[in-house]
Automatic annotation (TrEMBL):
<dbReference type="GO" id="GO:0015940">
    <property type="term" value="P:pantothenate biosynthetic process"/>
</dbReference>
<keyword id="KW-0521">NADP</keyword>
<dbReference type="Pfam" id="PF08546">
    <property type="entry name" value="ApbA_C"/>
</dbReference>
<dbReference type="InterPro" id="IPR050838">
    <property type="entry name" value="Ketopantoate_reductase"/>
</dbReference>
<feature type="domain" description="Ketopantoate reductase C-terminal">
    <location>
        <begin position="177"/>
        <end position="316"/>
    </location>
</feature>
<keyword id="KW-0560">Oxidoreductase</keyword>
<feature type="domain" description="Ketopantoate reductase N-terminal">
    <location>
        <begin position="4"/>
        <end position="142"/>
    </location>
</feature>
<dbReference type="GO" id="GO:0008677">
    <property type="term" value="F:2-dehydropantoate 2-reductase activity"/>
</dbReference>
<comment type="similarity">
    <text>Belongs to the ketopantoate reductase family.</text>
</comment>
<dbReference type="InterPro" id="IPR013332">
    <property type="entry name" value="KPR_N"/>
</dbReference>
<keyword id="KW-0566">Pantothenate biosynthesis</keyword>
<dbReference type="InterPro" id="IPR013328">
    <property type="entry name" value="6PGD_dom2"/>
</dbReference>
<dbReference type="InterPro" id="IPR013752">
    <property type="entry name" value="KPA_reductase"/>
</dbReference>
<dbReference type="GO" id="GO:0005737">
    <property type="term" value="C:cytoplasm"/>
</dbReference>
<dbReference type="Pfam" id="PF02558">
    <property type="entry name" value="ApbA"/>
</dbReference>
<dbReference type="InterPro" id="IPR036291">
    <property type="entry name" value="NAD(P)-bd_dom_sf"/>
</dbReference>
<dbReference type="GO" id="GO:0050661">
    <property type="term" value="F:NADP binding"/>
</dbReference>
Length: 340
């Protein structure tokens, strides 16, 4: 079985190191030449909540030799065009792309390689690339979860095969409602990761600002409205049904604030990757988050004005139209809710 990780950055480095350690022959593929060089010369160094230094095999995309049975696809969605060219050229005729990106990424990948060659996988843990060859695990090793599913929700032999592989790099589960889990994660990220970028601070800054939290709540509300129109049933996260945070009046919103605080409070120190991207001059994945809610809203005739506004603001921050500043929250125009 020939395996590869396409986009072996922060997450891919950890997965590749763990799979290699557990006996898998796997290529770590990345366009970052200094990173690839460091991986080959010094091994994959995992720090943070795991200490591991594992020799691995790393290559750049132009060094791929084809015949891959499975490619774990972790490339940022902003680089799909260039990355998927290599995926299509190097995947076996009956090979599978395991789509592990953020947002609702499977359709874009399926357009290039064919729907029958795509599996969805939601990664439920985090890591940060500290320097070439070094990835810092920021989640507890026993919380390294994956949710695996076929796009049609059916069972399949390859689902079980990938499950067995990922058991060596965390705790996978199989689901028949992949889109429901994706939508739950999309809703949370679109509300808090995006507002973290808008206010140029961690999630705690969103929770501590009346205006920013109201914006996050409105993004959440619009996302749930789109899900209803699209007949998507969001899956609970850690036993919590995100639909419980829907609201129609100002009074209802105020009643939900303690629930927002309880749900997101443990994550108040998280600073969105989009902010790091903007600061580093890289394009943020805003179209992968709120852009999806807005586009699906257009498709299903559901208004999503706040999602559209924050897409424009984050894009404007990257383009230099707006400064990286907490004052950007004032750019969002909220429609006042009825009091009761």
């Amino acid at each position: 079985m020939k395996l590869g990780i396409m986009g072996a950055g922060s997450l891919g480095t950890v997965i590749g190191a763990m799979l290699t350690k557990n006996g898998y022959d796997i290529d770590l593929i990345d366009v970052n030449v200094p990173h690839v060089k460091a991986l080959n010369e010094k091994g994959a160094q995992i720090t943070g909540l795991m200490e591991l230094n594992q020799p691995v095999k790393a290559i750049t995309p132009d060094e791929m030799t084809g015949g891959y049975d499975y490619l774990l696809y972790l490339t940022k969605t902003t680089h799909n065009k260039s990355a998927l060219k290599y995926v299509k050229e190097n995947l076996k005729a009956d090979g599978t792309v395991v789509c592990m990106q953020n947002g609702i990424p499977e359709d874009a990948v399926a357009e290039v390689v064919g729907k029958e060659r795509v599996l969805g996988c939601i990664v439920g843990w985090g890591a940060t690339l500290v320097e070439p060859g070094v990835s810092k695990l920021t989640s507890e090793p026993d919380k390294m979860s994956y949710d695996l599913g076929e796009l049609d929700g059916q069972d399949s032999p390859r689902l079980h095969e990938v499950y067995e592989i990922l058991k060596n790099a965390g705790q996978p589960e199989m689901t028949n409602n992949l889109i429901g889990i994706r939508w739950t994660k999309l809703t949370i990220n679109s509300a808090f990761s995006t507002m973290s970028a808008v206010v140029a601070g961690p999630y705690g800054d969103v929770l501590d600002s009346n205006k920013a939290l109201a914006c996050a709540a409105q993004i959440w509300k619009e996302s749930l409205a789109v899900a209803r129109a699209a007949n998507v049933t969001p899956e609970p996260i850690q036993g919590f049904d995100i639909r419980l945070l829907d609201h129609n009046t100002q009074k209802e919103f105020e009643q939900k604030i303690p629930i927002f605080q309880k749900l997101m409070g443990p994550h108040r120190n998280i600073r969105t990757g989009m902010l790091y991207d903007i600061e580093g001059g890289r394009e943020p994945e805003i179209d992968t988050y709120n852009g999806i809610i807005y586009n699906w809203g257009q498709k299903y005739n559901v208004a999503t004005p706040v999602n559209k506004q924050v897409v424009d603001i984050v894009q404007g921050m990257w383009e230099g139209k707006y400064k990286i500043s907490p004052l950007n929250v004032d750019l969002v125009k909220l429609t006042e809710l009825p009091l009761e």
